[in-house]
Design brief:
The chain is 9% helix and 53% strand. The protein is mainly β and 564 residues long. The strands form three sheets. The protein has a 24-stranded antiparallel β-sheet that branches. The longest helix has 40 residues. The radius of gyration is 47 Å and the shape is globular.
Length: 564
Amino acid sequence: MKYLVALIILISITQSSFAQHRQNKKRVEEKKLTKQAATDTALPPRTVVVTSQFAPSLKQTSKINFSAATPLPDSVRPTLNYNIPVSNLSLGYQSAPLKAMAENIDSNVHWQSSNYLKVGYGNYTTPYLQTGLSFGDGVTSVINVNGKYVSSNPSPALQNFSKLHLEGIGIFATRDNKNEWTGNVFLDNNTQYQYGFLPDTLKFTKDDLRQRFTTFGGKVSLRNKTVNSYGISYNPSVSLDLFGDNRNGKEDNFAFDLPVTKSITDILDFNVGLSGDVTSYKTDTVSIDNTIYTVTPSLSFKTPNVKIMAGFSPSWSNSTFNLLPNFTLDVKINEEKFILQGGFIGYYNKTSYESLANYNPWIAQPTVLNNTLIKEEYAGFKGSAGDHLTYNARVSYLKINNQPLFVNDTLTGKSFNVLYEETMHDLRIHGELGYTVSEQFSLLAGATFNQYSDLPAGEKAYGLLPVELNGALRYQIVKDLLLKVDMFFWDGTQYRTKDFQNRKLDPAFDLNTGVEFAVMPKLNVWLQFNNVFNNKYERWSQYPVLGFNMLAGVVYSFGEIKTH
């Protein structure tokens, strides 16, 4: 019984286990079927592999922290050094005429044309007219045209005069921009009267005393702007002047110059030139041909601090041969702040009716033309001091042959005859000084002292100035106000009386001043005062100058506004 009950329990447990096993197996198969159905409808699995390359990096550095601090005050003014080029001044006892200056044609320079008209009027019935016109682009061509006219009708009327000057200057670059042509043409017409006759009770008509000179001329030159492939530089030129008076005096002056420079090395050049000046002069009574020909070979030695030129110049003046020296030396000390100069040179001053009339407008028609030969030995220096001051000084000893001297005629003294001193000497001291502050202030001064000696024929240097001082001041007080001052002083010249006695004129002093100021953007007003102290001095014997005179007018600028 006991075993039967155990067997029944074991069978029950076994059946229950089989039933449980069948139930679990059924569930597994149902899940398998469900999973198989899901597998049939779902997307296949995908695998994404992410790969990262090695990227090196630096460890960040520590930042420097600056501590703000107030700088210490600096009361020392900075030193500014300027290299001012040395200027050579050339001042005369008379004001230089205003002329349009030819600009350098350069593709790197922007050139702006300027046109102006200046008109005025003064006492002594003095009209004044001046104009300047500019054309061209400043790169391939520049043309400047200027003109000036002034006349005066004082009392006595025989001191009347009129001056007319017209000039045109043109510069033209060639297509390759390697050469440059320059040409100019001009017309001068000056009229004055020989009012210096004595006694003044003599009666002359104005036609008898009228002295009119007319000059028409021109010049053409060519130069290479850069040294060519053969190391040659050239600048040939030709000129022609036609001069005449109102007494049938006529003169033709033709001149040519053919200079050539050949570079041998960087510091050595060979220079050679051929020049000629031919004059044909005719009056009712005389006919004169006057010629000068010169050949100028020389060697130039150039370094940054030394420049030496050495050569001789064979020359012929009216077929008379002379071998002229040509030796110069420039030595720079402290760059260009101080330059020593020395030399022994020879040259001619061509004597023509035109040159004599330009120096003395009351000259009589010459009957002889002798060229002046000068041999000069000189020593000097030039340079700059500071930022604004320039200077130049020279001592020269000149030996002069055929120097023209001027003496009053022995009848009335109204005209001057020319004497030629065959040989004479001149110890000359010349100095120049300039002080310039940009374009606002400029002061220029010059002095020349001449000690003439050994004059066997003329005894005295008639008509030549022994002492000459001059100065010019330009001060731009404010933007639209300009002050101008010109001063001239010279010691009186020697002259000869009718009875061949030697006399000396009194010293002369002349002060001129003027102002110019703007009243409109292109319109300026100007005032000019000449001979402020009303000195009736004489530059030439028996010819006193006019006293105080004043002019006033306006300047109208068409282009760039400039002060003229």
